[in-house]
Specification:
single chain; alpha/beta; 9-stranded mixed beta sheet; 17% strand
Length: 406
């Protein structure tokens, strides 16, 4: 038999290895696809809540189930847990908990509470309801590889039926912190009291609010730091910058729905939507019922003709919106833990100048801020662009350091 040439043997070996890897990946994709299909079938019963809702403490689990389609080398659960709305009323909130299969450290795992970017304001827009519910957790594999547990809230009104909490700092932040409490009740998670917060866009606002309120709302938790990418920190600047574009129309339609439910009183029920033109008011219910990622074309079809004629004036300078946007903007209270901020310089939604101004305010307040800007990066990719610097920041914060570059 002729002797096989070394280069040919190498090619055959590499081909065989790639074939095995491909088969393994294919089997995992098939496993996850089948598991996700099973999860989808169970959704209607899982997300339906009894009426009246049983009384429970914030973070107490109402219902949980293991996710069959969890990524390889992880375990994950859908959870529904008690939280509190703007008025302090007991509400159910859904979300997920994910852990790596590696052994937990002796003191338990630090929990990273993930606050997701905007997916919509309607019940069916919840990330945990998606066919791939892990897709929106930016940096998930980095966090799991580092040994963290992840608690990912849907926010109130998403997943479980209820009033929307879109851009409402208090109920959003309650749901973020209560997701950590829920994670700690699952024995297999082995969660410690240590918490890190990580959020993008709307989730940046939610994470910053959670950091401001953690000591008061969840004193049993040990907040170690908060990281945000392209945060919707200043809602007045966000509204003004997007007043006459499709993003502004979409954001405002979601905000009108949640703010009207949270703030409108019977004697002044029209004050919140007085900001809308007659065409805007007529179109808002249809827009607010659509999800940002999966129904973008339908949203654009409604919103595009309304650009420049959706609102009667700038919400950031018009009562009661001016006061409500200020109330729900981050930075009103000290944070007192290390803060990471990433911002793309090609961002057309959250203006880089707005984030710079927010960071300058944090530095002036002597907060420990690590600020990073990324040329050419737009709003969508701000969190991904932040991951290399975030990974280093997480290591240092876990070690008890306070990295800052103010």
């Amino acid at each position: 038999m002729p002797k096989m040439r070394p280069w040919l043997l190498k090619v055959i070996t590499v081909t065989a290895i790639l074939a095995v890897i491909g088969a393994i990946i294919g089997l995992d994709v098939l496993r996850r696809h089948n598991g996700e299909g099973t999860d989808q079938l169970s959704n209607p019963a899982f997300y339906s809540m009894p009426s009246p809702l049983p009384v429970g403490a914030p973070g107490e689990i109402i219902r949980s189930e293991q996710i069959a389609g969890a990524p390889s080398q992880t375990s994950a659960w859908r959870v529904i847990y008690h939280s509190r709305d703007l008025a302090g009323r007991d509400i159910p909130v859904s979300g997920m908990v994910i852990v790596p299969s590696s052994p937990a450290p002796a003191g338990g795992r630090t929990v990273v509470a993930w606050a997701h970017p905007t997916t919509g304001a309607a019940q069916n827009c919840a990330p945990s309801l998606a066919m791939d519910p892990f897709q929106l957790i930016e940096g998930m594999h980095l966090l799991l590889d580092a040994g963290f547990a992840i608690a990912a809230t849907d926010y109130p009104g998403l997943g479980v039926a209820g009033e929307s909490s879109y851009l409402l700092g208090v109920p959003e932040s309650n749901s973020v912190l209560d997701s950590v409490r829920a994670a700690r009740q699952i024995d297999e998670v082995h969660a410690s009291t240590n918490v890190l917060l990580w959020g993008h866009s709307q989730g940046g606002q939610a994470a910053l609010f959670a950091a401001q309120r953690a000591a008061e709302y969840s004193p049993e938790l040990h907040l170690k730091g908060v990281a945000v990418a392209a945060p919707a920190a200043d809602l007045r600047a966000l509204m003004t910058a997007n007043l006459n574009n499709i993003s502004g129309v979409t954001i405002t339609s979601y905000a009108v729905t949640s703010y009207e439910a949270a703030y409108a009183q019977p004697e002044s029920s029209s004050q919140i939507d007085d900001i809308l033109t007659s065409k805007g008011a007529a179109a808002t219910p249809a827009m607010a019922a659509l999800c940002l990622i999966t129904q973008t074309e339908q949203i654009h079809a409604i919103a595009t003709p309304l650009i420049g004629s959706y609102v009667t004036s700038d919400p950031s300078t018009t009562a009661p919106w001016q006061e409500l946007l200020a109330e729900n903007s981050a930075g009103g209270s000290p944070i007192n833990v290390p803060i990471f901020v990433g911002q793309g310089l090609a961002d057309k939604l959250v203006a880089p100048a707005s984030t710079r101004e927010f960071v300058a305010g944090l530095c002036a307040a002597e907060e420990d801020v690590s600020f990073h800007e990324y040329p050419g990066v737009d709003h969508t990719f701000a969190a991904y662009a932040s991951l290399p610097a975030l990974a280093d920041w997480l290591i240092r914060v876990e070690a008890g350091q306070s990295p800052a570059n103010c």
